[in-house]
Amino acid sequence: MAPTLQEAYQRRWWMACTAVLENLFFSAVLLGWSSLLIMLKKEGFYSSLCSAGNTTNTTQDEQHQWLSCNQQEEMLNLGFTIGSFVLSATTLPLGILMDRFGPRPTRLIGSACFAASCTLMALASRDTEVLSPLIFLALSLNGFGGICLTFSSLTLPNMFGNLRSTFMALMFGSYASSAITYPVIKLIYDAGVSFMVIMFTWSGLACLIFLNCALNWPGEAFPSPEEVNYKEKIKLKELALDHKVTGDRFYTYLTAVGQWLSQKASSLEEGVDTFISSQDVRGTSVKSAERAPPAVSAESVPLRKSLCSPIFLWSLLTMGMTQLRIIFYMAAMNKMLEYLVTRGQEHETDSLKQRATETVEFCSYVFGAMQLLCLLTCPLIGYVMDWRIKDCVDTPTEASARDGAATKSAKPRYRKIQKLTNAINAFTLTNFLLVGFGITCLIDSLHLQFLTFVLHTVVRGFYHSACGGLYAAVYPSNHFGTLTGLQSLISAVFALLQQPLFMVMVGPLEGEPFWVNLGLLLFSLLGFLLPCYLFYYRARLQREYVTPWEVPLKVLGSPEVTV
Predict the structure, then answer these.
(1) How far, CA to CA in Å, does 112 sit from each of 88, 161, 208, 209, 216?
(2) HEC profile for 71-130?
(3) What is the largest CA-CA distance in the chain?
(4) pLDDT tens sequence across 252-293
(5) Rounded distance, CA 505 to CA 158, Å?
(6) Cys-Cys link to 131, which of 124, 316, 453, 563 (CB 3.0-4.6 A)?
(7) Other C-beta atoms lying within 10 Å of the C-beta of residue 272
């Protein structure tokens, strides 16, 4: 039996902590591809494509010595391309289903698919000469199960109010840091534990996610703080006034009383006897509603309007470009590092091959360990997205009600304006880091690649968190899943280009990554178009915000001020 939304609110800290751990070890683990690729080659997946004349290296386990070649890497990289495509592309149907049915069924399906993925990889490793094609299905289920777990956790931060963007960034941070999982598994693998035992154990742990979701996650979606006040619904549910007013109505009643007292200030100063009546309160509430800008409910905003908005269209370009840049580096990192060691020599010596292999394995460990930076950097971008949100108001009447006794001060900050300002800062910072990452990729220095690892990790955590925070700030919560899903689908289509780029690099360019990286660096400059449009949109919105909303309010014991 699924818990109610009220019960889920009481368990929100347990759900958030377990969601972070589950995302860290079971979501986008496929992004640690460089370590998984080494293990698959050692297990002999598609080693049958290699012959003695076209081998680039040999790998061995306790029983076999497997050949390795470019054809094998291209085939395995195709599996990674398919898996990473599923990891991003399936978010559109998942978003539509999650908007309709909530995150619970999505999370249950995701944990089951991930367990099946690990089981298939374990079974395929028993006879790789025959069962190697199973790796495509396994990687696809791995990507699908991972994105189900990630996607279903993105609406959980709605239960944390003004800290929503910070908790969403933490979810994205654990998602981005999950690339460390395969490097950790490779350490266990190198210690002598068999690949099959590791995968079966991992499959069993995925079943615990299924059990946790069945016991703690509610059957309904998590509304956003703008659509429901969890504290009012839960803490004030037993409170009644005149046996009619509860919850949100009680909050509105108190606000109306405060406004009524402000309007009666002159009468009170003159000593006129007054009393509060229900008719006065209702009349004040009606007048306040007439003065305030019209509120548009989430249900009344058509999805078509959100899909065709310029902000969403510009975000598609920015996220697609960034996704291609990030995914290509993950797929080609081993080959890039090999080229830095061998310098593309046609006749490589055995010692040089051995040195290249050792360098790639060491760097894959370092790259995997650096993925934990996402847990530190993603909350940072979430803090940027939440900057001064708590001090903002939606309307001038809300500002006067919050202050109680207003004094002459600067005009209040409006919440929507501040959210746009924070999004501009977040995307501008992310794009500068992405350009810096592209520049370090062009420099032919092995030691500088450690800085490249850091920038890659930070950017990968930043751009997902910034986009999720932007959608949560601008669009209704019942559109969040569909918009995020469509954005991920378009990004996945962009990321498919990494396969032909990889084939061009290992083919005509003979392993030299300079020209591909240069083209991607120039392409990444398009990412600045989104913050530029947000800056223009904010300026236009500021002009519309202030003029019709300036309302003179006279408060007890204070001169007339304009808010």
Answers:
(1) 18, 31, 10, 9, 17
(2) HHHHHHHHHHHHHHHHHHHCHHHHHHHHHHHCHHHHHHHHHHHHHHHHHHHHHHCCCHHH
(3) 104
(4) 434 443 444 444 444 434 444 443 443 444 444 444 444 444
(5) 44
(6) 124
(7) 9
